[in-house]
Known about the structure:
The chain has helices spanning 3-19, 44-60, 75-83, 97-100, 102-105, 140-149, 164-176, 188-197, 207-215, 266-280, 283-291, 301-319; strands at 33-37, 64-68, 90-95, 116-131, 155-158, 181-184, 202-206, 220-224, 253-261, 295-296. It is of the alpha/beta class and 325 residues long.
Amino acid sequence: xxxxxxxxxxxxxxxxxxxxxxxxxxxxxxxxxxxxxxxxxxxxxxxxxxxxxxxxxxxxxxxxxxxxxxxxxxxxxxxxxxxxxxxxxxxxxxxxxxxxxxxxxxxxxxxxxxxxxxxxxxxxxxxxxxxxxxxxxxxxxxxxxxxxxxxxxxxxxxxxxxxxxxxxxxxxxxxxxxxxxxxxxxxxxxxxxxxxxxxxxxxxxxxxxxxxxxxxxxxxxxxxxxxxxxxxxxxxxxxxxxxxxxxxxxxxxxxxxxxxxxxxxxxxxxxxxxxxxxxxxxxxxxxxxxxxxxxxxxxxxxxxxxxxxxxxxxxxxxxxxxxxx
Length: 325
């Protein structure tokens, strides 16, 4: 056998070995892997996490179960993961508001940037504003006019103080120069139920989730928080289209990312990073996320860490001029 032939065979074997990195279970344990979510079952974060859990299970050759730890703007879930053993059995499906906003709103017994290991980003999303069908406003301008005529009489729900939909509404109120009444919940699902029942005037929610209630006539759409109209609801205008000066650059959205406890061995860390990347690129997950209006975010752990740090700093500046309660 010539040296050239041997070299080609060696290269081929290395390529095959690389492609088979995740052909065996990532973890030696047979117990289910916990994917901890900081919000109640039935909400958008929970829905996105359950879809991701299926893809991650395929990538890890393991059973991945969603564990809902709602409350305190997702920090209960984060704390659960911080305290967990760094054995890959407990990981966090994080919604962006928790690692970026919560540190500015409450004193935490851990450091979001130092006590967790980023494994990779998953997806980006935008929110939209929907209202109870009996509310007297049908678009952004009418809402602003009504709020100025009757300050604090318009209520809105959220999945918790400092959550992405809370901040979306607080930032909207600041930019539109109106006063709204915030009612926090332990998740979007119960808040959405109360919005449909009339206990709340309105609520921000992820476009993919809110669009279902609009299409079935259970709530009415006011505007979407994306820079452009959503393909899911092409007839619903953006806030920027309202013509209100303060909303000309308004956006409302967030992202999802995966974290593990700190202290992972380099080998386990790499396996988990590869599993997350494989899950994000899973064909079924990409299809379902696209149907739900999510933008796939195929990045690295460094991308997730850098984005979280940038958003954390940005919200720190914005929150200093906002009333958050």
